[in-house]
Automatic annotation (TrEMBL):
Residues 1-78 are annotated as: Disordered. This is Conserved Mce associated membrane protein. It is found in: Membrane. Keywords: Membrane, Transmembrane, Transmembrane helix. Residues 9-21, 36-71 have a biased composition (Acidic residues). One of its GO terms (cellular component) is membrane.
Amino acid sequence: MSDSTTLEEQPEPAEVVEPEGESGQAGVPEAQPRDEDQDETADETQDETQEDADADPEAGEDDAQASDGEQESPKPAPSKVRLAIVVGLAAVVAMAALASWFGFHAYQSHQADQQRKLYVQVARQGAINLTTIDWEHVDADIERILNSATGTFYDDFQRRSKPFIQVVQHFQSKSVGTITAAALESESDDAAQVLVAVSVKTTTAGAPEQRPRAWRMRITVQQVGDEAKVANVEFVP
């Protein structure tokens, strides 16, 4: 038998078939999907996304607005800001006006109180001037009374001053007045009436010492320019 014949008659080796299963897949690479399948899958996903967007168009807008809200804080409307400024200014003006009114009212009240005190003080001094007279310097005492008087009281006392001086000097009289009480009775725009209680101790030459006498006077005080003077004197029983 020749070599050629021997080679032709030898059977071909059988193909080795790998067993199927998990152990067989370990060394075999997985089949990759075809490009056509990937394209079809991408198209389907895009179509579904477009359908969702068409079905709910407001969802995208809400997401965009939420994103913008996180980045920028809301600003108050200009009209509200102007209103707040106007209200604040009005409150300040009102408080200033109220403070001014209270200040002016307090000033007026203080001035009126000071004026009443002045009326009472002038009446007290007028009563002391009328009841404190010494025969040794009676002229100065009478001059002091006239300097604090005005109106009809000034005219009447000036007319009677000379006879009064003669009587005091003749009896060598000396009197001292002490105020025991004084109070404002009534008041007008430029005048007031004051009740004054005074105790008067009088001594004369050659006469025994007398007990003090209590007198009550209603003295009218008149505002004359920047001064207040005695305008009238009445003895009250």
